Amino acid sequence: MQRFILSKKNHITLVSAILIVIGFTGELGFKNEAVAVAALVLASILGAMPIAIQAYQALKVKIVSIDVLVTIAVVGAFFIQNFEESAIVTFLFLFGAFLEQRTLNKTRSAIKELTEMAPESALKQMASGEFEEVDVDEVDVGDILLVKTGAKIPVDGTVLSGEGSINEASITGESLPVSKEKGSTVFAGTILDNGTIQIAADRVGEDTTFGKIIELVEEAQDSKSEAERFIDRFSKYYTPAVLVLGILVWVFSRNLELAITILVLGCPGALVIGVPVSNVAGIGNGARHGILLKGSEVIGDFSRLDTMVFDKTGTLTAGNPSVAEKEYYGENTQEALGYLASIERESDHPLARAVLEEIGETKFSLVENTEVVKGGGIAATVGGHRIAVGNVALMERENVTLGEQAKADIARFEKSGNSLVLTSVDGELKVLMGVRDQIRPGVKKDLRRLKKLGVKNLVMLSGDNQGTVDAVSRELGLTEAHGSMLPEDKSAYIKRLIEEEGQIVAFVGDGVNDSPSLALAHIGIAMGSGTDVAIETSDVVLMNSDFSRLPHALGLTKATARNMKQNILIAVGVVLFLLASVFFSEWMNMSIGMLVHEASILVVILNGMRLLRYKLR
Amino acid sequence: MQKATIQLEDLVCPSCVQKIENAVRLLDGVEKESVNVLFNSSKAKLDFDDDKLSIVDIEKAITALGYEVKKSQVKVK
Fold first, then answer.
1. pTM summary value
2. Per CATH, which fold does B2-76 belong to?
3. Domain coordinates in residue numbering, chain B
C-alpha cells in the first residue's frame, strides 16, 4: 500500500492540483463554501499521504527529515481548520519534488551519457566453439570474443584474427578511426567502424581503461569538499533544531499557526542540494569535453591556481626532435642532400632520423670507408666524394673553412636552441641543418589563455641545458624557466613553492618520471599517452593528452567554484529572508514560504545547469 | 566480508541519502563505517558479513523505504 501510494505520487500531485482549483473556484466563483471546503480537505489528505509515509519511514530510521516537518505542519494547519494552507503546502511540496527530479536528471545527463557508453553484451566463444551473446559481466580474462561491424568492443584485449578500423573517441577523444590487425590492442567502449575481429580478453569490467574512466567520473561527481561535509553535518542537526524551535514557539506563544509556519520556513531545501548540483554539472561538462576532474576538492584547488609548472619535453614540446631550420651553401644542393641521406641512413642516432625525415625521397649512393668520429659525427666516401656530416668541431678537423654567412647562421641556429648538423662535400660546406625538439602547435596560444584566466606564473622545468630551455621560454613567453633539472630537483622546486611561498601549484608532466612532482603538486596533470598511468596519477585527466583542453579545464573549474558559491548564497539568503519576514511582516504564511522554498531549490538547480553549457570564450 | 554496490533509482532529495544510509546501517551484519550512499550516481556502497545477512535482506530494507533497487553487485572483499 505504501509503495503503491509513493509510486503514484505524480498522479496524486495532479489530482490535488485539480481539487485545489475546484476549491478556489467553488469559494470565489460560486460562493459554495461546502464544495470548496470538501475539495480542499480532500486535496490536503490526498497530498499529505505520500509525504506522511516518507516521514514515517524517515522516523523509523531515526531521521527528522523535511517530510517530518511538512507533515506536522500540514496536520497542524488541518487542526486549526486552515484547509487552504494545508492543501496548497502539500501540493507545492509534491510539485516541487516533481520539478526537482526533472531538472536534476538534466544536470546529471552529461555523466549519464558517458556511463551509458559502457558495453553491455559480448559475443563469447562457448565450449562448443560457437559464439553466443552473453552479458558483459560474464566475460572473463582469456575468453575469446567476436566483434562485428558497428558493435562496441566489450573488453580490453588483443586482436587474434581479422582486421578492421576502430573509433576510439571514447578513450582518446580522437575521432579518426584507427586500423587494427592481428596483435593490435583494442579498448573496451570503443566502436568497430568496419571489419570483423576476434579478440582475446585481457582486462574486463572495472579493470579496463574505460571502466576506470567511468569509475573515476562516478566517484568524482559525489566527492565532497570540506565545505560540503560541513553542510551535511550541519543539516543533520538543523532539521531537528527547526522542529524543536517550532515546538518552543508553540509552547510559549500558544500560537499554533506561527509554530507550523516556522516548520515550513525552516526547511533546508536549497542548501543541501546547491553544491552537489554544481558539482555534477561541472564535472559533466568536463567529461563531454575530454576533461576528467577528480572531484570537488580538485575543482576548488584548480580554480584558485597561482602557478602552473610544466615539464618541457613531451609536454610543451613534441618530444621527438625534428629539423627546425636549414641553410644551403654553393651549388649542387640536391646531390649534397643525397650524400647526406645515404650516410644518415646507416645511423640510428635521433638527429639522423630527424634529418632523413626532412630530406624524404632522394637518390641514395653507396657509402664506403665510414669513419665514426667520437663527439663529432661521421666521415665517409660516397660516390667518390669525401663527405663529412657532424658538428663544427668535425668541420674544423676536416679543414672545412666556414664563410662569414655560415658563421652567422650557426650562431643564430644555436641561439634558438638547435643541435647543428653540418655537411661538407670535398672540404666545402654545403648544408647546415638545425635540429630541435619543436614546440607543440597551439601551445603558445593555450598558455596565453591560461594567463588570461588568472594564472600568475607559468614555469617550465627541464632536464635540458639552460640555453635550450631559455630559447623555448622566450618563444612561449613563460614567467620562469629552469634547465638541467633532475626529477628530484623538480619536486624540490614544487615543494618550495608550496611550503615557502604558500602557492597553489599545478604540475603538468609526462606521468612517467615526474610522478613525485605530480603527487606533490596540488593538481597533478599527466600528459603521457599511456592512458592508464595518466588516469591513476592525475587529478585532472586530459583525454588523449590534449594540451589544448587545459584552458577549458581551468575556466570550467573557476565557473564551477563560482557557481557553488552562488548557490550557497541563494540558499542561505532565502532562509534568512523567510525567517526575517515571518517575524517582521504581515503577509508571510505557510503557502508563500513553501512556494519560495521550492522556487529557491529550482533556482539553484537551474543555476547549476548553466555549467553544462559552459564554453571558454 | 562482502562488498556490495547497489544501483538505486535516481535519488532526488539529499535527505533520501540519509534515510537509506541509516536504514542500511541499522541492519545487523552491515559494516557501519563502510556505508556510503552516493547522491548523483544514485548508488549505495557497503561492506557486509554474509554469515549474518544476504544481499537480498539489504535490498529489502531499501525497497521498504520506497526506493527501487535496479541492480546489485556483490564481490568478495
1. 0.80
2. Alpha-Beta Plaits (3.30.70)
3. 2-76
